[in-house]
Amino acid sequence: MNASSRGAEPLPNTKPLTEAGNLAEKQVAGMHKYLDRALAAVRKERDAVWKDALASEKALAKALPAKRERLKKLLGVVDPRSEPNLEYVSGPGRPSLLAEIGGCKVHAVRWAVLPGIDAEGLLIEPKGAPKACAIAVSHSDQTPEQIAGFAKGDAFALQLAQHGCRVLVPVLIDRKDDLSGNPKLNRQTNLPHREFVYRMAYEMGRTLTGYEVQKVFAAVDWFKSQDAKLPVGVIGYGDGGMIALYAGAIDERLASVQLAGYFNEREKLHQEPIDRNVWGLLTEFGDAELGAMIHPRWFNPGLHDEPPKWTGPVSSKPGRAGAAPGTLGEMRKDFVEGHRYRSFFDPKLRNDVIIEGGGLIEHGVGTESFLSGLGIKQPDRAPFRTPEVKLPAPEHRHKRQFDQLVSYTQKLWRDSDATRKAYWAKADARSPAAWEKSCDTYRDYFHTEVIGKLPEPTMPLNPRTRQVYDEKTWTGYEVVLDCYEDVFATGVLLLPKDLKPGEKRPVVVCQHGLEGTPRDTIEVEKRLVYNHFSRRLVELGYIVYAPQNPYYGKNTFRQLQRKANPLKLSLFSFIIRQHQRSLDWLETLPNVDPKRIALYGLSYGGKTAMRVPAVEKRYCLSICSGDFNEWIGKTVSVDLDRSYMWTGEYEMYEFDLGNTFNYAEMTYLIAPRPFMVERGHDDGVGTDEMVAYEYAKVRHLYANRLKIPDRTAIEFFPGGHQINAKDTFAFLTKHLDYPK
């Protein structure tokens, strides 16, 4: 029976818990407040990071190589490019020369980028010998032809050619959703094409943005292979401006860089389309800092250019869902980033810093300052007529580009076992003790670079409790513990009534799944999922703690991930600290044996049972139920019917996880502590084959390399996504030495 909160005494050494309302909702809301403050403060933190680099031109030149390497890592610009090669795209009755416009010849071309990936678009040749070269990048929902004079509107790519530039215009992946599915699996989503590629790429340590930056670099490679002396620049609008900014910040070969409709404050990156998400970006790089990396080359951020508008994924298509929210088009109000960028340079340098000029006005993207950066004085431009040309269907070209990126990323996943094996080559398996010691470096990398490490909490725990259960053999208390300002840990503690003074018993921490609460693990259910395993364990005599984890509230909690990622944080950055605070408090309880605290979780709780003990060694064993998987395939594969590519869990993706820690490698961080997997044959989160394949690597480590086969087990049982509570309970008894 439930105990009335009125008159029920709190636990000894705790204050009364008087908080009303839904604690799960309040937990998520508090984390949003924390992240909002962190986003508001990160600009000043970047100022501190950049202070020494901006002290002088010499200091800046010295600092930039390392910063460029870090930026390349965050964008996933890590793959060696193919040898420069450009091909004219033609076919029967379809020459590569599409038209002559304003004295310039426009060809359909492709150029090599990475193995299996090329860029495709247009080459615009000027009338005479080229004076310079340029890459002109349109917004993702524009075609190259729209900026090359084939349509009414902004033909800035053609303008550059008319002024003597040899111009390449690449196709960007757009935000339609026609290709975002797999008809063979009868799976179709409303994920914009850019989000579809982003998801799988992010898990593999790449980004769609990085792929498209590589296409710009490959264009520079080709230009330089043709004439190394000609200066090269990049200019772009909207998403093209984003690509131009990143490319200019990284590649010193780009002598002139101009943006239109992009330069802005990035502290609201979480409101933009998710394909723009970059892990850890804001800790070192805002748009102003990226502009500083272009100095002393010519740079025009186009501060007064209106950005393109996009109202977010189409959500009204029957049977098609899953896309992350996001919009484009918010106007800048005070040009904060422009003022910051200008302030980086002292008056002697500011003459070389182009702030005004350009702009997307009624005549289109202004090119005068961009051409000046290439050493071209802009003469009067010859008028031209929009040609009446039957162009090849752009959707076929776009599909080729989309399919290439998908195939390349799928291959990264298929090759990732070998990549992770090489990454783990230094782990020492000569003994369990040697293994644990050698894993400390990997553990720190996992926490810092993959999960994201919040600072150690310093505020008092300030435990507050209230009794919420009074059963025949046990009582239950709701608990709240402080972590940071507005951030708290909460859960329900279940205590057997037969505890004796001085007696020490093991604790089982029972973790709920997605959209769950601690009570879900305690109450007897109508539909078997948790199998009331918290209740059953306390009735066996264990002390039980059921924490509330913050994956509650659908997009409300998923947006925590969006806010956190650019700060080099994630949802599990908070979950790890919340569990650590819970352990800090549990260890103070008189009947708790601190050396026998186990974690047992289902579904998202199983995800917790993989990640938290990998960092927090005070958990003496871990049981993962309904989640253990070939996790990288689960998140990346487009050939798996239960992949997260088909669902709305856009927060599942963790940057570069595929090259470092699949579930076997997370278990390596738990070893040599006991570890178990609970798997229902009909559990749709994976397949028996996937689970067995990944677990075989765990078994090999424990049984063959560390010679501790009794410390790991797997149970396959007839059933679905649920706690089975049979072999796992025996595993707890064996390794917690309880009940006797």
From TrEMBL:
Residues 504-612 form the Dienelactone hydrolase domain. Transmembrane segments: none annotated. GO terms for molecular function: hydrolase activity. Keywords: Hydrolase. Residues 1-20, 305-327 are annotated as: Disordered. PANTHER family: DIENELACTONE HYDROLASE DOMAIN-CONTAINING PROTEIN-RELATED. This is Dienelactone hydrolase family protein.
